[in-house]
Write a structure and sequence with these properties.
Blueprint: E1 3-4, E2 9-12, E3 16-22, E4 32-35, E5 39-44, E6 47-52, E7 63-67, E8 70-76, H1 93-199, H2 209-214, H3 246-271, H4 280-292, H5 296-309, H6 314-327, H7 330-343, H8 352-368, H9 372-385, H10 390-404
Parallel strand pairs: 1-6
Antiparallel strand pairs: 2-3, 3-8, 4-5, 5-6, 7-8
Helix pairs in contact: 4-5, 4-6, 5-6, 6-7, 6-8, 7-8, 8-9, 9-10
């Protein structure tokens, strides 16, 4: 039985009530405070302070400070007036029990609401972070595309200028070539006319045919042609190399190489396994058999290998959570149970039993860590799935008693 604290003190103003509760040597970490608009409880084993308030207070603005050997509770009044007493003057145990139960239910609803609000806030933050990341990635893609377009336009302009320059050079060379050909033809024609005049002129006879051939013009031989081989340095990235992005490209290539190395190492490690050892269902059955015989470490090893082969089977995480509970690895049990519940979506009749088991295992791990409020939520979730489960109802009653302080924590006995 807890020892009721009677040496408390209280003061008030028109708007606020202040309560001082001495801790009697208890450590700050073991003080459990529960406050609603009609009820206040301070529990630090084996002592208990309860106050069934004379008037309702504003629970949302109430505060509690623990330190220097006392608990200072500030309770803003809903109506600005002085109280005749701190607590209601009644010895009706049933009425107090009803008020206590209502306060516990309000406190649980408050915890659930706060948890839901935190989850919604976390979801909103994740959504905002994802949208921001997507926006940044889009801006980066647009920037890269803009750089590509700029480089393409620049390259196109340079190519057009080069083609125009080549065309102009070709026209100049063609004109020069035509001029040379015309000049050569003119020279040949002049020499031919001169030879004809010398060889067949009136009254003149050509001395010899060889003499005429010597004076013929000898044309130069055609120029030699050839091919020039051009090679380019290979690049992984489609864009041109920029000094400002060299470090970024090297980091990306390093991460890709590490990822490939990890995949290859995992493949090499699993390659030597037998055919049945690569079957997640076979490994699950093996782990179940080990669990049934009490060999929890072997069961965990079997489930670990099965998870590496297939990470989408909820039963592997749920069964491994049961093993961790037996081995006292409560944080790992919570992690595996949460992973199983994430995979058991959407909630349908086919996975109801599996969701109930995973919720109970996570709730049990929370209670082993003395996080009774979180554990009670998981047990309630399991009871919603199996409302006629007598064992679950009994466990929920035990947890409620521990939270209310009517039953001692089993780990502290």
């Amino acid at each position: 039985m807890p020892l009721l604290v009677t040496d408390y003190s209280w003061t008030q103003t028109d708007s606020t009530v202040y309560i001082n509760v001495p801790l009697k040597g208890a450590k700050v970490g073991k003080v459990d405070i529960l406050s609603t608009d009609e009820y206040v409880k301070v529990h630090f084993p084996p002592y208990l302070f309860e106050a069934f308030l004379f008037e309702p207070v504003d629970d949302d603005k109430s505060t509690a400070k623990v330190g220097n050997g006392v608990v200072l509770i500030s309770l803003p009044k809903r109506t600005n007036k002085e109280w005749d007493h701190l607590m209601i003057s009644t010895n009706d145990k049933e009425k107090k029990k009803v008020i206590r139960q209502q306060a516990l239910l309000k406190y649980q609803d408050k915890l659930t609401s706060e948890s839901r609000s935190k989850a919604e806030k976390k979801h909103a933050e994740k959504k905002y972070a994802l949208e921001t990341m997507m926006k940044l990635e889009k801006e980066e893609r647009d920037t890269i595309q803009k750089m590509k377009d700029t480089e393409r336009e620049k390259t196109t302009a340079e190519l057009a200028a080069w083609q125009l320059n080549q065309k102009q050079k070709a026209e100049v060379e063609t004109r020069v070539k035509l001029q040379r050909q015309r000049s050569r033809q003119t020279q040949i024609k002049a020499v031919t006319e001169e030879q004809e005049n010398q060889c067949s002129g009136e009254g003149n006879v050509c001395k010899s045919e060889a003499n005429c051939k010597k004076k013929q013009v000898v044309l130069p031989a055609p120029r030699l042609t050839g091919n020039i081989q051009v090679t380019f340095t290979p690049r992984v990235f489609p864009t041109a190399l920029r000094e400002s992005r060299v470090q970024e490209e090297e980091e990306w290539l390093k991460k890709q190489a590490e990822a490939r190395h990890a995949v290859n190492a995992d493949t090499e490690e699993l390659k030597d396994l037998k055919e049945e050892h690569r079957n997640p269902d076979w490994l699950k059955d093996k782990g179940d058999k080990y669990f049934a015989t009490g060999d929890y470490l072997s069961a965990v090893n079997a489930y670990n290998l099965a998870v590496r082969l297939n990470r989408k089977i909820p039963a592997l995480y749920s069964n491994r959570a049961a093993c961790h509970l037996k081995l006292g690895n409560f944080h790992k049990a919570i992690e595996d149970s949460s992973q199983a519940l994430d995979l058991l979506t959407p909630p349908v009749a086919a996975n109801a039993a599996a969701r109930a088991r995973a919720s109970v295992r996570r709730g049990s791990a929370f209670c082993q860590l003395q996080l009774y409020a979180e554990g009670l939520q998981d047990y309630h979730a399991a009871l919603k799935i199996e409302p006629h489960n007598i064992a679950l109802q009994a466990d929920i009653e035990k947890i409620r008693d521990i939270i209310q302080g009517t039953t001692a924590d089993p780990d502290t006995q």
